[in-house]
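Colleagues,

Please find the record for the three-part complex below.
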Amino acid sequence: MNTLSKFLIGCASAVALGAPAVQAEDKELTINIVASMSGAFANFGLQAEKGARLAIEEAGEAAGMTLNMVVIDTESNAGKGARKVQADLSEHGPGIYVGTTLSSTALAVGQAVHDAGGVYINGGGADELTGEKCNASMYRWSAPTYGAVNASLRPVLEAHPDIKRVYTITPQYVFGEAMLSNAKTVLEEQGIEHVGNSYHSLKDKEFSGFIAQAQAANPDLLILLNFGSQAAASMQQAVNFGLKDRMKILMVWSSGLDTMQSLGSDVSDGVYFGAQYWHEEEAAGNQSLVALTQAKLGEAPNYPLASYYQMTKIMIDAVNATGGADPDALKAHLAGYSYDGITGTETVAADNNQVEKNFYLLLGKDAASKADENDFADVVSKGKFFLSAADAGCVK
Amino acid sequence: MIYFLMGVGLTIIFGMMNFVNFAHGVFYALGAFICYQVIQVTGSYWIGLILTPILIGAVAYILEKILITKLYRVDHAVQILITIGLMLIIREGILIIWGTVPKPVATPSILQGVIFLGDFVYPKYRLFIIAISAGIGLGVWYLLERTRFGITIRAGSENPKMVSLLGVDTDRLFALTFVFGVALAGIAGALLAPIRGADAFSGDEALGIAFVVVVIGGMGSFSGALLGGLIVGLVQSFTAILWPEGTKVMIYSVMALIILLRPNGLFGKA
Amino acid sequence: MLTKTPLFVHFLAAFAIAAVLPMLLPSYVLATEILLFGLAVIGCNLLLGYTGLLSFGQALFFGSGSYFAGLMSIHLNLGIVPTLLITMALGALIAILVGVFAIRRAGIYFIMLTLAFAQLGYYIAFLAEPITGGEDGLLDIQRPALSIPFVAKFEFDSDFSFYALTGAIFIVVFVLMQRLVKSPLGTVLTAIKQNEARAEAIGYNVKLYKIVVFAFSGSVTALAGALYAFMLKFAPLSNIDLETSSQILFMTILGGLGSIYGSVLGSAVFLVASDFFAELWPRWMILLGLLLIFVMLYMPGGVSKSLEDLFAKISAAKDQRGKKP
């Protein structure tokens, strides 16, 4: 067995001699894109990566440094993501990290980047990101559950004063609990009866049991508080069960265009969707992104693409503004920073690093009235609802 | 009922060939995608439903010839690990061909909507699935119990050496059995596509359920798969009402309990 | 050739592995991960490689190890040695519980039982969100310090110091495991693997031995899980899921069944390759699938066995040349 150890030692000396540490050229700045390129959320990561690439190619350089993009694949797994970011940090020192939509990954990566003194922006949904688990190095672009629920549920209730009874379907984990408690608060305040809730696990794909329960409770409005493929699947099954004709349906945390493309107009017609981003937004920041995406990729930007584009752009702009990539300077610059973003004017809250931006309420339309193949819905309203750092429980 | 359909293919392959197929679930996912593709080309769900088992059977036939046929004599553990490798390859292959966004499959128009049974409302398409699965179940039963092919398969599962001594071409029989079992998984995928869409990662869950069904019923037993499917369905429906979060816990607990009480499942042979 | 190797040679070899790894790799983090997964693979190899028991439940031990250790560091603050020892004891306890039930069945039913227990563990961790953090994982884990009263206190905050800790633990476990598999117990396990009925007939209490090996496997794997949680300062739910079980299995097979050295090699090859390919191509798992089939079909001894054969051939060739003139 000594052969093996000899072999290993041989390898080691060969590598130690043959590889004097090759340093990157000094005029290069790496932006690390953290995304789920493989695994269960690969569909998100692949789109997201395109968005980050668009932003980096568009800028080309920042503060005189050539931009270099490194993709860190989380494999849709918080542990893997955290480990790879840790390895990257210990190899290259504190740097700029962008991305991931999964709250568990964002929390773990945020902790690692903060410990090492880097700067990190993500698109996770859990309230803790800019609440109890916030830290000075972690920024969050997307609206948290509080904002999503308020910006989508309130306008639906206003548009339909006849809604008296509401049923909810919730994934049982932190994100779902936060969505549910926010929804309950709004319902209570409006004096509307919450007639029941079904919890499901993150692995469920079969929702007929939950939908049968919802149906039995005979509500006026069904709220889906889940996300991603589960939201799509439960919506599809609810429509199969014929619930669309008997009540209004609201999916609070859709991923916008993606969700509607996978459901098709037959299902999305007449259904309300909450969304972080909608490609028909008229703000200048969005119009330029739409033109860029059309020119480079020949498609309309969806949420993963747009959010990664915006998050990457925030970092590039900050590097330009501070004339360098020093994390502390970047953080100082970002406090209270306001800019024209893809959802209109967006502002980085100084006290908890939350980007305050619009959240959309969309109403799906039928196939006949679509202006183009991606015109699945009309914007009913958009709004900004954010908790103060104190209310969110953030102590940096 | 669909649980039965997933389990029965697995159990036939195990019973006849003594082969544990961990790639069974991914064939279910592949079935959904093939169905989606046929619908894209022909515009008809019905053609999709008919072509899916044929196409997936062809895939299974090729795989049997180049890979599976080498595995009949090896340990179960080795079979499991190799078919996990196969599962990874097919799953990633699906992602390369069809992309990573799950594809929707529309319910055929005559089966849209719901049927009122008194106070209870049930979607037409789900009733259709129940009917079709029952039909396929009957067909499989007829095939196994009443035809020459079935008799040979059953004899083979009792005593493969004897069958081959009797002059039956066991290679061909094994290939047919494998193709048949996999085609059943493919049909299950195509049938469920309008409800759950075509999703490359749905295979893992399908595999888990298929194994639970088969283990509960007894590996290699046709009536076991039927009963296992029923039990899993009932456990799932009851816990969905009483304790929705705990469905999976209950299903696996029931499986563990049954293995411990009845070593070879309810209808298993030693 | 192997049986006569004295223990201190294994010690030197383990020391060499731990010393050399960081030189070959870009970061201490990856080196730490290789060693601790090496421990988990050793745990799996005890069952599969030495006793012939295919367990789909290794993640149950790995994951509960990381939860136990993480919770102890958050709530009890005991110092590193007691934390790890208690974790190992709890890991062994869980493994004994699983073992007592699972070994009552053989073959595919045994495998399905280990799978069922692992899935139960997963859903319990998932549902016990107030304790385990559920889907978000257990955050805010601190690495406990090593304090020797009146002498010194070591913290493991830097990547290097934590690697040193993992390396030291690795060397100890590595040597102990070499000792274990060469002991009379190891011989009995091999006898069980080769022919269970015969081992039983000779008069060995096969069931008891199987439970004992489960206990060893559980405690070593829980130790690995604990180190992983301390490395990440975070215990993700995925530590206890089916994928972790299958990854530990892949590494075991890749490295070679029934070889403690192979275990480390399997972990190293798997982690380095998956890192490397994941950067190149998001669909890298297709290669993993192909590799898995290839190894199972053509390299039943895993990478370590193939390397040994290769060296044997090379040295044989050298001998040939040496004799010619």
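The CA atoms of residues 125 and 139 of chain B lie 21 Å apart.

Comments are welcome before we finalize the supplementary table.
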